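Two proteins, back to back. First:
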Amino acid sequence: MTMIKLFYFKRIWGIPDLSPFTVKVETYLRMVNLPYELIEGHVLKGPKGKLPYIEDQGLKISDSSFIIDYLKQTYHDPLDQNLTLQQKTSLIAMQRLLEDHFYWIGAYYRWFSSDKNWQIYKEALFGHLPVIIRDTVAITCKKKIIGRQLYAQGISRHLPNEILQLGQLDLDCISNFLSDKTYMLGKHPTSLDACAFGMLINLIQCPIDTPLKQYALSKPNLVNYCHHMMNYFFPDLIEK
């Protein structure tokens, strides 16, 4: 088996990556014990102009869901192959909530939050750039994200209290769905856990303090879930 190359942003904040989607892919790779190599990537070099992407057997695959589909088809599917039809339906529905709605609320708080939080995120994302161009690049990207992506998606059209309300409803749904289970669909991990962990750890354990983060911290089962996932799948990142 060739070594899979996973192109990511960077290790930071004591979590696998500042991108929930990169955390999703790396978590999946660890769940199924596939050997991989981490390489700091550049969004412009990705097949779809974003991270993460992987290289494997001469192929480049982008988008976390297509990456995991490829890995399942190429290296077997030990996590999801025995799920019932109802479980598979729940998996897809929850993944859509996490990635197509909840993600954008988290993005809003990172790019559109207080100046203190913006400085933290700017340093994490652009701190590697030369000082002479760092602020210019950061401001340009911020305008693009807020003015185009978040507005086109619709989140930034809402009032701040409305956005918080939407995020809280999502967290209520995720918390209720998890309930007292070890993993999202029961006693055993599935690919849904890779997705959920990527989203939740990037809210709960990042240094950007927002009302949405505080609401997540008020959910003991979500906090314990993130601690379990870190301890079980990323013990090497936990400070002793």
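And the second protein:
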Amino acid sequence: MPKTCNDKPDFDSALWWATARHVTRLEKLQPWADQLGLPVECIDWLGGATISDMLTFPMHSGTGNICGIRTRNPDGSKKAITGSKAGVFLTTIPLNCLDVLICEGPTDAVAAMALDFEPIGRPSCIGQEQHVIDTLKRWGKYRVTICADADGPGIAGAERLAQFIRACRIAVRLVAPVGHKDLRDWYKAGATRADVDLAWGQAAYNN
């Protein structure tokens, strides 16, 4: 049926993000970097943009297209803009990292970048398995690390994702932050890539 002038337009998440990025400068991202304890350049590389008092990140489909927008308010509450479709958080610039790290949420994905990983962030501890697998195949990656949040749902969701990935003949290892709830907290506490490699060095890849 043809649309009428009373029909609401479809939400164009890619256009929304491009517009938000056009008016976002690093100085607008810096207060968020200070609040979150993350490098501002990594927030920028994940496509961070500010609108009003919100920090936003684009979500991508398995083909790499932007399919939705995730928001974070100053009080820490998180939502998606109406009309968004759930996807995964990816860098918006090529990093060419060898090690891919799957984690939970955009801020953990930013922390992964700060630790020299190529991140794939899921919006929550469950879901988006096909987007993850399609991204890995598109990148030509056949070995990946999943960093689970150190709680029951986080570990269960990571184990479920690992099953999907192994079924696609991609080697995967399952790890968790040492002594902290999530990867961002571990990074904020001073973890370096050397610390991470030492802590996870005995975790074997299985497929």
